[in-house]
Write a structure and sequence with these properties.
The chain is mainly α. Helices cover 96% and strands 0% of the residues. The chain is built from one helix and no strands.
């Protein structure tokens, strides 16, 4: 039985070595997965920051557009007043022309 003990210890040592190697491989795989997740989280943070900056730019563009639309509405109103005034002047000049023609007869 003395010869069986060293053989048994060698198998036990090999078994422990195999388990240790398996655990090291598993740990390495877990570290790689964790690193990928951290990098992904970092990238997500960058994308979220970029999205926030883009949102601010879009909000500024919308506010600028609203301001431009208000100004255009004011200009449209003024142009309508001017059109009405021109129409009245045309009608009055037409009436004056009729009066002049009547006086010249």
């Amino acid at each position: 039985m003395a010869t069986g003990a060293p053989d048994s210890q060698a198998r036990f040592g090999q078994s422990v070595k195999g388990l240790l190697t398996e655990k090291v491989n598993t740990c390495g795989t877990d570290v790689i997965a964790l690193t990928k997740q951290v990098l992904k989280g970092s990238r997500s943070s960058e994308l979220l920051g970029q999205a926030a900056r883009n949102m601010v730019l879009q909000e500024d563009a919308i506010l600028h557009s609203e301001d431009s639309l208000r100004k255009m509405a004011i200009i449209t109103t003024h142009l309508q007043y001017q059109q009405e005034a021109i129409q009245k002047n045309v009608e009055q000049s037409s009436n004056l022309q009729d009066q002049l023609n009547h006086l010249l007869k």
